[in-house]
Design goal:
There is one protein chain. With 249 residues, the chain is an alpha/beta fold. It is 41% helix and 16% strand. The protein has one domain: TIM Barrel, CATH 3.20.20. The chain has an eight-stranded parallel barrel with strand order 1-2-3-4-5-6-7-8, surrounded by four helices. The site of 2-phosphoglycolic acid has 13 residues, from β8. The site of 2-phosphoglycolic acid (PGA) has 13 residues, from β8.
């Protein structure tokens, strides 16, 4: 059975009390479906509250938006993978385009963070995707493959199957302009081919970038998509529940 992943990236929204209230509403609005899982990525301060609020639901899970690659030490402001795990995280985003663009995160950083996540038994959700300039220059596939190779080149097949790839074209994030299902599928196929060549053809590949109630059914009708990573449209628990509920499955 295809088990779809619906990942909610709350970015810099929803403190601990707000996260608890959100998840209370979400849990009552969204009844479990065996063919889908819903993961929440709250800000670090809300991680423990979110993890606690989903603890009794096997289909729901909380994860970190970012981790540092070191396990501990003098890194003011940073959260390590073991610390996120202590707060209840089961997964972490790695290399989100906002981290890359606004915080100067490099390909090498994504390699170290992916390794740190795997070492702490967190599922890394590695975000890859091209900018508008890269797309217009025809560089989409080389950019995505460079990002994959940099972050995952040294990860062996068994561990690679635990990773999730989120293809998020930068020009589609927060812009209201999503990739068409065909655009996304083309890149997903290339990502899958890269993974298969590294012994992990079953690794899940999800799409992100302006996913909404309006386009979710059309996007998930494309079998190349194993789910979605959603920012803006995940911030309201009622409409997010509706989005997960009504999506084709
Ligand atoms: P968006 O964000 O759904 O608001 O475009 C997606 C993301 O950044 O993961």
């Amino acid at each position: 059975m295809r088990r779809l992943l619906f990942a909610a990236n709350w970015k810099m929204h929803l403190g601990p009390a707000e996260a608890r209230a959100y998840l209370k509403t979400f849990r009552t609005r969204y009844r479990r479906h065996d063919d889908r899982a819903v993961w929440f990525f709250p800000p670090a301060v809300s991680l423990e509250a979110a993890a606690e609020a989903v603890r009794e639901r096997e289909d729901l899970l909380a994860g970190a938006q970012d981790i540092h690659w070191e396990a501990k030490g003098a890194f003011t402001g940073a959260v390590s993978a073991p610390l996120a795990a202590q707060a209840g995280a089961k997964a972490t985003l790695v290399g989100h385009s906002e981290r890359r663009q606004l915080f100067g995160e490099t390909d090498e950083d994504t390699r170290k963070k992916t390794a740190a996540a795997l070492a702490a038994s967190l599922v890394p959700v590695l975000c890859v995707g091209e900018t508008l300039a890269e797309r217009e220059a025809g560089h989409t596939l080389p950019v995505v493959k460079r990002q994959l190779a940099a972050a995952l080149g040294g990860v062996e097949g068994g561990a690679l199957r635990r990773v999730i790839i989120a293809y998020e074209p930068v020009w589609a994030i927060g812009t209201g302009r999503n990739a068409t299902p065909q655009d996304a599928a083309l890149v997903h196929r290339e990502i899958r081919a890269w993974l298969a060549a590294h012994g992990a053809g079953e690794t899940r590949v999800v799409y992100g970038g302006s996913v909404s109630l309006k386009n979710i059914a059309e996007l998930l009708a494309e079998p190349e998509l194993d789910g979605v990573l959603v920012g803006g449209a995940s911030l309201n628990p009622e409409s997010w529940a509706e989005l997960v509920q009504t999506a084709a499955g």
